[in-house]
Amino acid sequence: MPEGINADLIPDPTGVDSLARQIRQTGRAYPLFDIAHLILKRPDRYQLHFRAHGNNADGTPRQFFTCNLDDTVWLSDGDATRHVLSKHFGTFYQTEKIAVDPPKGTYTFVAQCGMSGIVLGPPNLHDYQAKLQRLHTERFSRLAFDVYKSRVRIIREEAVVKQWIEEQSFKFEYVCLNLPEPLKLASRDAVEQHFRQVHLPNIIKPEFSHIVRTPAAREALPPPLRRLARREFDLQQRFPLKLVTRLSDDFAHRGLHFFKVNKTVLHVAVARPRFLDMETSPVSEGVKRIVDTIQATPECTRRKLLEAMGVHLPPADAPPVAEGTETPPSPELSAIVGDLHWLIHEGHVIEFANGRVELAKKPAPRPTPPPRPPRPQAAAPAAAAPAAAAAVVVAEPAPDASGEVPADIGVSAVTPPSEAASTETATEPPMVEEVAAEAAPAPPETSAEAGGTSPEPDEPKINPS
Fold first, then answer.
1. 224-256: per-residue pLDDT in tens?
2. Which of 215-219, 220-224, 419-423 has the lowest mean pLDDT?
3. By CB atoms within 10 Å of each CB, which of 308, 332, 430, 461 scores lowest?
């Protein structure tokens, strides 16, 4: 397999358009994997997408070469050039046959290609090696040169030697076409060199990504790319996951929808299934009648539905009616078909590819989530907690008659007990309220809002903070 080149099978865009149009017109739901297998059955329904990635051994980006004349892909520009000169030679050059003197000397044997039958001439001629190399390059490059050379035979038959001598009595010149001035070339090597200089940039393009669109172009691929394409085809035929993924994208861009049957088989249709609740959704009597008939008919099909609703249809095995002699449908049939068309395109009714008709199922009610457990409450601190860990609120002293606060009473409102005990100017311990003591009875209110006073008479009156 060629290194650094990937091949993918993609559906033909024209075929995808036709399938999408058919799905919209019929309203039927088709399994995507069945569509993928149908595409793989015919070569004209899919294309080959080649992509090159990575670098070559010399560090240059890996790429391949495409021929604009026939949409073929080649691994090198030399292979592409030889392909053009072999298949499209007359587009660029014209061959002229000119008589010349036959080779001098006596020849009793010639070399002949054992694979193509082409007579190469005596091995001791000066151009024998060049002919051998050119024939190997043009037609048998997949073989090693030594292997190909071992298949060359020596022929001593007089008729074959005489045929070669007659062929050497002519030479060929090649006239270049589509040029402003006439130009003749003396050999095929000169022709190839001229093609590379003049035509190659316009005919052969280096690319990193290319799509081979026609089966004929796939048949002309070189053997390595053909084997790569065959391997990808075999993989997709066993399980066409990549092809289904591409089909999903193509159908989605064309406005179609997808759903799974029994949570397994993926289908494509004009609408997703949507349950019709006739108790909450007002519908016409015709629509309600269709829904009730489908629900009451086992293994319902369109034909069974119409027959159950009283529409008389010709037998299924009746011969087709000649064109121009069809009877117009009755108003009743037209009304039923119109209502069924609306139900299908709204997703309330599903008509599968095998003809089965079903109602969109009522969605299962969502399970009620269990109630959340109550958040755990933080445990209250014990009444006997150390005084250092309790929150301490220190009251501020009240001013005296002169309006000044005595200096020996001023202690910070958030002074820790250790610092308060070390204050030398404090003659009495400050009043404190332990917030964490739950078991103790509530102390008398001392806040300004309550208008109370300190519970101990020997303490100075203070204004609470």
1. 899 999 999 999 999 999 999 999 999 999 999
2. 419-423
3. 461
pLDDT interval class at 187 (50, 70, 90): confident
In terms of residue numbers, what domain contains 429? 386-465
Judge if 106 and 120 occupy the same domain: yes
Whether residue 122 has pLDDT greater than 80: yes
**Under a CB-based contact definition with an 8 Å cutoff, are residues 462 and 409 in contact?**
yes
d(CA 39, CA 44): 8
Do 279 and 357 have their domain in common? yes
Q: State the number of CA atoms in the 13 A half-sphere of 461 facing the CB.
A: 7
- Both 281 and 361 in one domain: the answer is yes
